[in-house]
């Protein structure tokens, strides 16, 4: 397939078009309602808490309520490996991005560049494109395991200057999204084990099958349905929260900060591009090939703005707090504008056949 046909195919894909239009329009709606005063000053923070505590855990767990096959399992393991490897790579690569800065500012910008808002910004977009129960959401959840490990270890140590604390380890593993991800992943992996009780069910298409008793999407839909409703809230509430947050902060102050612009370029353009180049090399050499869905998921996750936790570290430990705030705001605006570009770009790359 040539590039022209790939571009045409991408814009004929209604899931892609709907995801792009939905993301931008709902973010703009949140922005407008905040500016108008319909949303209060803390509304964005409240929405964020709801999404992180309820909607995203439900989305993560529900994504694993599907059958397992070798191809999906292999892809998930490749995504897991890459999700760990890329942060090790970025830790070293970002050092060269900020050589002209002093150590304090360089350290802060490196951490902010390493860690994007994959959970709050990335996963809802992935769910919007592929659906809340798609394999892509599995890949996104698995990819985030490495993100959590490095964010709460390397990120904390780098920003605080302290050794790893017990409270951070607790936060790493007892986060609702992490618990839901690991619970869903384990149940998904062992569902065909002989020692797991199975039940005979008939799916919506009338096909009879034997599934593990905890496949609540088939064995107990009255339990699964509330989780489906909650998972469905993740994308719209996250986008409204992003828009509301943007409407609460002065963009003009951030817009005159050259360091924030340079950072936003690195975070939203260079980091995803590094991923594409390295993943293409790995695919061509058959070292760690990823599928088209996995590639699109990874790039969307890496094209996200500053992680809230990373900017919180900067503020809490008084490490370039103003810069971190400006960088967070500006990168969110840039990521919102450029996300359609990355969605289209990954769709075109997928259509070339390099990622199968």
UniProtKB/TrEMBL annotation:
* GO CC aspect terms: membrane
User: What domain of life is recorded for the organism?
Assistant: Bacteria
Where would you find the membrane-spanning parts of this chain? 16-34, 46-68, 80-99, 111-130, 136-157, 169-190, 227-247, 268-288, 294-317, 329-349
Provide an example Pfam family for this protein: Mem_trans
What is this protein identified as?
Malate permease
Q: What is its main location?
A: membrane
- GO terms for biological process, alphabetical: transmembrane transport
Annotated InterPro entries = Mem_transp_PIN-like (IPR004776)
